[in-house]
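job 3f2a | input accepted
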Amino acid sequence: MFASSTQESISSPFISEKTEANQQLIIKYVLHEAGVYDLLRQMPDLITQEIVNLKASAMPLTEAELAQLRLNLKGRLQTSEMKQSIVSYLQSRMSESELLAVKRMLQAPNVMQFKQLQEDADNEVAHGHMRSYKVQLQENAPNKSRVALVERLDTSLGQTRLETGIKVELRKNLLANVSWMKSSQVLPENVLEKELAEYRERVGGHINENARVFYLYLFKKTPSKDIRGLISRYSNPEFETFMENCEGAILNSFKKARRDAYSETTLAGN
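job 3f2a | predicted structure (270 res):
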């Protein structure tokens, strides 16, 4: 759910407006179909949850400081701006032929059936069944080969890795903002990453576990050969490049938000 936006939003003079517009339409389509937009839509809720967690911690912050943190994060990580940044980022790094290859893959019948299966399970009744199913899995361990299969699919999709990255980068921004607010100290990337190494492992494990249960539930009646077909479909260079670029775009967006927080506060102080 990005790199210097001024540089990447500049179109090549050799690309026609029609071609550029067509590329943007393709990118927006594949971002939606690949579930990236769904992850970005979670951003406001994730920010609110981070503030709630911080409020419940032992960190001495006033209500005014917590409110300022919320404004800082929501103001610099708006979903609409992130969407536009990721479109520009992808447009500068992927050719139209590569994007069309991703689009064709996402329009394959088995991929579209898989997406419909996911959408059909996105309701309170299905969520309740999944919670019960998770308890059943704890009492009766699932078939190991089946687990390995859904884990391979999860890795091929790249969504849990992206979701983990979003949560870790959001936590980095929160720590960076608190440090700057309390001591005007800039926390370098390596310091933030070291500080959050345990958190990355923990949150990543939790997200992967939820995904594993979800896919085991989703594919209860699906033959293993059909799951292998999906893995094969998602395991192609263009889609892997697309997801890697999505991750890079989001990473750069969070880094830019941190830089903006430092520079704006410094300018205000002058």
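job 3f2a | DSSP finds 15 helices and no strands in the chain.
job 3f2a | closed
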